[in-house]
Amino acid sequence: MGNNSEALAYQRLAGAVFGSLCGDALGMPVEGWPPDQIKEVHGRLDSMRPGRLPKGSYTDDSQMMLSVLETLVKHKKIEPQDLARRFAENFEPERGYGGRTYDALNRLRNGADWRSISSDSWANGAAMRVGVVGAFFAGHFDEIKKAALAQCRVTHTHPLAQAGACAQALAVGLACDLGAKGEKPQTDIVTAYLAEQIEDISPEAADRLLALPDTQGLTEEECQDALWAEYEMNLRTMEAVCPALGAFLWADSFKDAVVMAVSLGGDTDTIGAMAGAMAGAYHGLDAIPKAWLDDLEQGPKGFAYFEKLCREALI
């Protein structure tokens, strides 16, 4: 990079991108499993495993995040028509798309106007892909919220989906700022800020954030129990965003945040990707285990392509 500030920006942006990829790939083989089954089969799931896709593969979460990153690199903002086109071009159904998103992208591929595909879904599809927005616009929270909503509206019109996407993007933006300053995020401060930012979109979503238990200082088992007592770990947006945030706030390292997120069970690839984006933005790319990065898939739009986009995003 050209100078120290650019190098630091790359650490945060690439940290969020590859953190999300790693969380997605780590959670992929146990998606839909309850936590007891994960523990029985894998113990502490802290290394990449094969599942419905080969070891280190990303799912629909990261494939849609890729499209968001591509349009940010091209336009330096969210350009909805371009984003929709990229969603359609990158669409590989075997990655595991949810029903409504699958139908919407299939219609796009068959020539539908992008303005006709959005649905009134409260699911977490728009939040799972948005972490890169928080890192791309780090330090500019109005821009983060604006871009998070713009990318959400391409596929999701429900207030819960929109509020969740904003909360996730803003959490990653906060993680960038606090990590750069070397400041530890505090649960009450973070949740109060995020809730304030999304209350105008969905009071219900803001309430779910404010219900987040303070996981800091708990043991691993206590953290799991506290998050399970409050959230469902499912496709409903805030039931994924909130536990991902709890896992991030609990952990002192990138690895522990993502392992905790995946160990919660349920929508593991999504919760892992969300926590990975936050933790990667906070701790930086260099904090991600090398073994995890080495295991990520290669290919035309694999590891090297994501790395290229992260560098181009800062030009």
How would you describe the overall organization of this protein?
With 315 residues, this protein is mostly helical. It has one domain: ADP-ribosylglycohydrolase fold (Orthogonal Bundle). It has 17 helices and no strands. The protein has helices at 4-27, 35-42, 60-75, 80-90, 99-109, 125-128, 131-136, 141-153, 159-181, 187-198, 203-210, 220-230, 238-250, 254-263, 268-283, 290-295, 303-313. Helix 9 (159-181) packs across helix 10. The longest helix has 24 residues, at 4-27. The mean pLDDT is 96. Its cofactor is Mg(2+). Belongs to the ADP-ribosylglycohydrolase family. Mg(2+) binds at residues 59-61, 267, 269-270. Keywords: Hydrolase, Magnesium, Metal-binding.
Give the secondary structure arrangement, pairings included.
Layout: H1 4-27, H2 35-42, H3 60-75, H4 80-90, H5 99-109, H6 125-128, H7 131-136, H8 141-153, H9 159-181, H10 187-198, H11 203-210, H12 220-230, H13 238-250, H14 254-263, H15 268-283, H16 290-295, H17 303-313
How would you describe this structure in keywords?
mainly alpha, 17 helices, ADP-ribosylglycohydrolase fold, single chain, 64% helix, 315 residues
Provide a quick synopsis of the model:
Belongs to the ADP-ribosylglycohydrolase family. Mg(2+) binds at residues 59-61, 267, 269-270. This protein has 315 residues and is mainly α.
The assigned CATH architecture is: Orthogonal Bundle
Total number of strands:
0
Name the CATH superfamily assignment: ADP-ribosylation/Crystallin J1
Largest sheet: none
Task: Quote the distance from N terminus to C terminus.
Answer: 10 Å
**CATH-defined topology:** ADP-ribosylglycohydrolase fold
Q: What is the count of helical runs? A: 17
Q: Which term fits the overall shape?
A: globular
How many distinct domains? Answer: 1
Q: What's the CATH first level?
A: Mainly Alpha
Kindly report the oligomeric state of this protein.
single chain
Summarize the amount of helix as a percent range.
55-70%
Are there runs of 5+ residues with pLDDT below 50, and where? Answer: none
Please state the average pLDDT score.
Answer: 96
Query: In sequence order, what are the helices and strands, one letter per element?
Result: HHHHHHHHHHHHHHHHH
Fraction of residues in β-strands: under 5%
Structural class: mainly alpha
Radius of gyration: 17 Å
Protein name: ADP-ribosylglycohydrolase
InterPro entries: ADP-ribosylglycohydrolase (IPR050792), Ribosyl_crysJ1 (IPR005502), Ribosyl_crysJ1_sf (IPR036705)
Keywords: Hydrolase, Magnesium, Metal-binding
Pfam family, one: ADP_ribosyl_GH
